[in-house]
Amino acid sequence: MRSGKLQKKVNDRSIFLKMYFITGSVLLLVLFIVFTNIVINNVKKDVEIVPDLYSKFVGMPTDVNLEHFLFQYFMDEILPGIDYPIILTDSLKSPFSWENIDIPKKNFDQLETRQQTILKNMVKDMESKQSMIPLQLSKDDKKIYSYVFYGDSQTMKQLKIMPYVGMAVIFIYIFLGMYWVYTIKKTERDILWVGLAKETAHQFGTPLSSLSGWIDVLYSKMQNCKDSKDLQEMLDFMRTDIERLTKIASRFGKVGSVMKFQSCSLHDIIQETIEHFERRLPAVSNKIEMTFESEIKDKKINLDPDLIKWTLENLIKNSIDAMKQKDGNITVTAISNKSKTYIHIADEGIGMQKRMFKKIFRPGVTSKERGWGLGLSLAHRIVEEYHNGRIRVLESEAGVGTTFEIVLPEV
Fold first, then answer.
1. How far is CA 164 from CA 130, 159, 169, in A?
2. Residue 277 lies in a domain
3. Which one of 249, 291, 294, 332 is CB 3.0 to 4.6 Å from 204, fit for a cystine?
4. How many domains does the chain have?
5. Which domain holds residue 266?
6. Is 364 part of any domain?
7. CB under 8 Å to 255, separation ≥6 — which residues?
8. CA 132 to CA 128: how far, in whole Å?
9. Is 400 inside a domain boundary?
10. Where does 291-337 have alpha helices with state H?
11. CB 125 within 8 Å of CB 150
12. Model confidence over 354-403: pLDDT tens digits?
């Protein structure tokens, strides 16, 4: 992906994030107001029974039987509007009538044992919650003739779950907001990476082209020189180094670009990388030996050979740096298993603590006195983001060594 597209993506997500917080806050406020109004309306319906009963009582003719009127009002007006379970019991709390319970309205003794048990358990539960009304003839009369047990209405259930629903909605809202903030910051880091890499490639390109041109001029000038053999050897070394620098610039230029994979021999890439370091080991240390054990000689994998080689160079150089103060071996192993290729790079260096296993791949994290700590971070990006593979510290022990693992899909 090019930096221009990344920048547009960041801008789009920034606008989306602003709209998300503004729209989300307004929507949460509206939902809260709507839900509150619904609950208030339900509460109003529940308490409307009292003024309705009062108005009918005031307008009731004097010759009407009050007991019959109250009973009829209870049966016709109150019970049909109840949306919660209600159980009437005798003074011994044995049920004889019930409403809004999925049990046939029969005599209690005619019910199945299971149904009787359900009713008794409901009575015990309601009693434990103090959801009962003892029926007495008057306040002064201590004798209780029956009980009315009742459960929670829909309004009460809504009020109970309201805090939990609100907390859940707010949590999801905040979580999604934090996720988008993290995504935008990650994309901004991608732009920084891509911009830095491409600017580096650009800065490399101009002087390298100039140096390459001057070497061609020197080649043409030295043909008549008596000591041309030594000079030509020096120029050959210079050209080799310039070609290597050009390749490095090309690698940086690929960061952030669309990858064009090709079928390659990973065995040959690893072998070439090891040979490159073996020629330079005497300049680093005479005590380090490198070995390569491969089971993938005849296997072809779709990848970007230059970037994979860059990854291997970073890991092997990291191993060499970890062994500057001691003798030992660097062993590279390549095997294939279940449509995946595994590369292990094991050294006998200083090792690292387990808490560093993931941190070591972050930009800027390094144990060296010099350097920016970008090598392993680049390796991580190349393997996981460009090749859909995996790279990790397989194992490490202080003073014993470290093993890095690269896993590449064979597609």
1. 24, 10, 9
2. yes
3. 249
4. 1
5. 262-409
6. yes
7. 193, 194, 197, 198, 378, 381
8. 9
9. yes
10. 305-322
11. no
12. 888 888 887 655 555 444 456 788 888 889 988 899 999 999 998 889 99
